[in-house]
From TrEMBL:
This is Transporter. It is a lipid-anchor. GO terms for cellular component: plasma membrane. It is found in: Cell membrane. It comes from Sphingobium cloacae. Its main location: membrane. It holds the Pfam family OEP. GO terms for molecular function: efflux transmembrane transporter activity.
Length: 474
């Protein structure tokens, strides 16, 4: 009996050793379907050299420098429901991977049974009416239908589940990076709307004074009713913009609360557009395309591609024999007291094999499906790389012209302000008509709004460039 046990153990060890076969294709990372470096041209600024930071290596807490915004982002990461969903998806994928991984090893179970039987003895006529009582007790430890993975079917399915789990982690990281950028953009939008409200109130006050002056001149017969009506239009426009900006600020706060998953404290809300930058500006002006591989969404797409590659191996293995093993070691006796006595032990090993002969194209169809899925995941991966390259290139192009645009817009606003001051003084002195002052008012108002929009666009570009380059997760 010991010899048979030894042979069985040797057979099992040999089977496990042979299970090193792998039918999956060798994975080679696809070539990036984009240029090797960032685009160049008049719209792109030069690189920052050694002083430039790498977004993927820079934590968001280090990138954003406004303490109020940092606190809001921290609150968001702790309370946002979309991020919680992403975390739950990670846990689901992790659990599925553990379930699939458990199939590689045998499941060991403990079984116990007791059979109580009473039946008549019918073999001998002279023993009619006599009944036989039999009690059988059994206890065993064994494995049932453990698939010996000779051709890597189970391991490839496990590999696919593992890559799906890794993909879910990267999707969660991508969700966090996008959420951080969205919160920062929402916070800056609220700051811009607060600044827009301040500008409208300041101009309402200035236009109101001009309106009162025009009405006074009209009462004295110096100004015409047309000038009064023209002054009224500028004043009413400022009033309408105040109402609109007030609504926008309230809506911005509602949007920020939704993103944060809770009510953001008043101390963390912006009351005006910050005078300085809310984030670091020393991002690189150029970068190699290989850095795109550190973007979470692109990493997730590659893990999906790896999972599809593993599924091809599992589909190929289905064409080969599937071997399973059932084994048990235990003890049996006719009395409970004798269950563990010498001589009551027993063992059994029952290997089995199944070979597909006629499946009417089922395995072939599964293999074609796995290959088509791989092709789809490959196209998805390449599209993710191209999308990432386009987002970075767009952000770099916007950044390259932003400095000149901001300087021009600032100069325009300053000139419009001086022109308005001069035209109003000349109007009060009776040198110019009110039409000149009205044009100056409107030009100043447009210049103020344009400068504000440019400042917001510059900050939004910094945030988008940080996100497009991979961002930081800590």
């Amino acid at each position: 009996m010991n010899g048979l046990k030894g042979k069985a153990l040797i057979s099992m060890s040999l089977a496990v050793t042979l299970s090193a076969c792998d039918m999956a294709p060798k994975y080679v990372r696809p070539e990036l379907p984009v240029p090797a470096a960032s685009p160049e041209g008049p719209a792109y600024a030069a690189g920052e050299g050694q002083a430039a930071i790498v977004p993927a290596d820079t934590a968001w807490r280090d990138f954003f420098v406004d303490p109020r915004l940092v606190r809001v982002i921290g609150t968001t990461l702790a309370n946002n429901r979309d991020l919680r969903i992403a975390l739950a998806n990670v846990e689901q994928a992790r659990a599925q991977f553990k379930v699939r991984r458990a199939d590689i090893l045998p499941t060991v179970g403990l079984n116990g049974s007791a059979t109580y039987q009473e039946q008549p003895i019918v073999q001998f006529p002279d023993m009619a009416g006599v009944r036989n009582n039999t009690d059988v007790y059994n206890a065993s430890v064994g494995i049932s239908a453990w698939e010996i993975d000779l051709f890597g079917r189970v391991r490839n399915l496990t590999k696919a589940a593992q890559e799906q789990y890794f993909a879910s982690i990267e999707n969660r990281n991508a969700a966090q990076t996008a959420l951080i950028a969205e919160v920062a953009s929402a916070w800056m939008t609220m700051a811009a709307d607060q600044e827009r409200l301040r500008i409208a109130r300041d101009l309402e006050s200035a236009f109101g004074k001009t309106l009162e002056l025009t009405k006074s001149r009209f009462a004295k017969g110096i100004a015409s009713e047309l000038e009064v009506r023209q002054a009224q239009t500028s004043y009413d426009q400022a009033r309408a913009d105040i109402a609109q900006a007030t609504t926008l600020v309230a809506q911005d706060q509602n949007a920020l609360n939704l993103l944060a998953g809770t009510t953001v404290g008043a101390d963390d809300l912006p009351d005006a557009m910050p005078q300085g930058d809310v984030a670091l500006d020393n991002l690189p002006g150029d970068l190699p395309s290989s850095l795109l591989l550190r973007r979470p969404d692109i990493a997730a797409a590659e893990h999906q591609l790896l999972a599809a590659n593993a599924n091809i191996g599992a589909a190929r293995a289905a064409f080969f024999p599937r071997i399973s093993l059932t084994a048990a070691f235990g003890t049996m006796s006719l009395g409970l007291s004798n269950l563990f006595k010498s001589g009551s032990d027993y063992w059994s090993v029952a290997p089995s094999a199944s070979v597909p002969i006629f499946d009417f194209g089922r395995n072939q169809g599964n293999l074609r499906y796995a290959r088509a899925t791989y092709d789809a995941m490959l196209a998805t991966y390449e599209k993710s790389v191209q999308t990432g390259f386009r987002e970075v290139a767009d952000a770099l192009a916007r950044r390259g012209t932003m400095t000149d645009q901001l300087a021009a817009q600032t100069s325009l606003r300053d000139s419009a302000r001086v022109a308005y001051t001069l035209s109003e003084a000349r109007f009060r002195a009776g040198i110019d008509s009110f039409l000149t002052t009205l044009d100056s008012q409107r030009a100043l108002y447009a210049a103020e709004q344009g400068l504000l929009a440019t400042r917001l666009a510059r900050t939004a570009n910094m945030i988008e460039l940080y996100r497009a380059m991979g961002g930081g997760l800590k």
